[in-house]
Amino acid sequence: MSVMRAKMRVSEVKTFDNTPQETLTFNAVCASTYPEDGTDENNSFALWTPSAYLTMSIMNPALHGKFAIGDTFYVDFTPAN
Q1: What is the DSSP string of 24-56?
Q2: Which of 27, 25, 79, 33 is nearest to 49 (CA)?
Q3: Distance in angstroms (rounded) separating the CA atoms of residues 70 and 30
Q4: What is the pTM of this model?
């Protein structure tokens, strides 16, 4: 099986009172404009993954407050055995 890499941008961070839980929402990268020659990494990712949506809840206190709207991350999918 092939490995897949997506480039995702944080679009929402939802916090909860009195708990280290956060719900993070990510969307595939895109832009309203790209260079005419297409030499933009986000353009390359958007070509092959034009739409993606990921939501996760995290409870790790060390990660609380570490994600901000607009941050971008690579998300790698590899088979788990």
Answers
A1: EEEEE---S---TT---HHHHHHHH----EEEE
A2: 27
A3: 12
A4: 0.81
22-28: strand order across its sheet:
53-58, 22-28, 4-15, 72-77
b/e code 27-60 from CB counts within 10 Å (16+ = b): ebbbeeeeeeeeeeeebebbeebeebeeeeeeee
d(CA 61, CA 81): 28
- Residues in the chain where the model's pLDDT stays below 70: 1, 32, 34-35, 38-39
